[in-house]
Specification:
Layout (H helix, E strand, L loop, with lengths): L8 H7 L10 E3 L3 E5 L10 E6 L3 E7 L4 E6 L11 E7 L6 E7 L2 E6 L10 E4 L4 E6 L9 E10 H8 L10 H10 L2 E13 L4 E14 L5 E2 L6 E8 L11 E8 L2 E4 L5 H13 L11
Parallel strand pairs: 2-4, 3-5
Antiparallel strand pairs: 1-2, 4-11, 5-10, 6-9, 6-11, 7-8, 7-10, 12-13, 12-16, 13-15, 14-15, 16-17
Length: 290
């Protein structure tokens, strides 16, 4: 779906390949940018250039006026760019601007101002274009903040995270063994409780951890009262996860700061498949099965 920008803005966009927009008050590091459109009040069509070099971070644009061009330039070889996927997750109350994909002067609407889709994530190939954020006409911008988190990841990882059926389909033995080697977290644990969030179409699995093999972020932590390891993993509501007896091997990936469920066989099944693969010399990596 293509949507034209405000009249007169596209020629300015093309010229910005060589020119920088007017100065604005902002704070920025390699990963995050936070700025204000108030300095654009007398220049309604100013365009601000934003440059970020991390694989994840956030944009927060207060009082949006004019437009932003967000240049994501990760510290990787340009040859690898074609293998990258960009995902953005708008803040819950993000408002005041449309977000487009821009490539060679053409704009494709990605997120319309006013869309209210809790937890919705928008993904596109890095080579499909950059992000162009255009403020929409407002009677009062004093309460408007346009913002989102972003992540860059390999296309294979992005595909796994955003294939609707993937989290609900049982994994094959090969998929489980690969998940143990490549996941952001690998734990042995039990399901203590499940909280269903109908509005976001997600379930939160409250996990009691018996053994922590690996975690990329500190999602699973020691609790002060019991001294046990606990944490939360999210999955789709349609998967129908329920509390139950027995231990599982939980694997998955971190996505926008949250643990997302990947393969999760019963632990006794994992022990069987791991031993069989090890006896044949086919296990892709070593991990203590108990």
């Amino acid at each position: 779906m293509r949507s034209a920008p405000a009249a007169g803005l596209l020629p300015l966009l093309l010229g910005l390949r060589l020119l920088l927009g007017a100065a604005a008050q902002y704070s920025s590091d390699l990963c995050n940018w936070k700025g204000s459109g108030l300095t654009h009040e007398s220049h309604k069509k100013d365009v601000e250039q934003v440059y970020l070099r991390c694989s994840e971070g956030s944009i927060e644009w207060m009082y949006p006026t004019g437009a932003l061009i967000v240049n994501l330039r990760p510290n990787t070889s340009p040859a690898s760019y074609k293998h990258l996927t960009v995902c953005i997750k708008p803040f819950k109350d993000s408002a005041g601007a449309n977000i487009y994909l821009e490539k060679t002067g053409e704009l494709k609407l990605l997120v319309r101002d006013g869309d209210r889709s809790p937890s919705k994530v928008y993904c596109f190939g890095y080579d499909q274009g950059g992000l162009f954020i255009e403020a929409t006409p407002q009677q009062d911008i004093s309460r408007k903040i346009t913002g989102f988190q972003y992540e860059l990841m390999s296309k294979g990882v992005a595909s796994d995270l955003h294939t609707v059926s993937a989290p609900c389909r049982p994994c094959s033995d090969t998929e489980v063994l690969l998940a143990v080697c490549t996941s952001d977290f690998v734990i042995r644990g039990s399901i203590q409780d499940v909280t269903n969030e109908a509005e976001e179409q997600e379930s939160i699995i409250h996990v009691g951890v018996n053994k922590l093999y690996r975690q990329k972020s500190k999602v699973f932590q020691l609790t002060g009262e019991s001294g046990n390891w606990r944490g939360q993993i999210k999955t789709l509501l349609e998967c129908g996860v329920k509390p139950g007896d027995g231990d599982f091997l939980f694997t998955g990936r971190m996505h926008f700061g949250e643990a997302r469920l990947g393969c999760a066989p019963r632990f006794k099944d994992f022990q069987r498949m791991y031993k069989e693969a090890k006896d044949k010399g086919l296990n892709p990596c070593e991990i203590g099965p108990d």
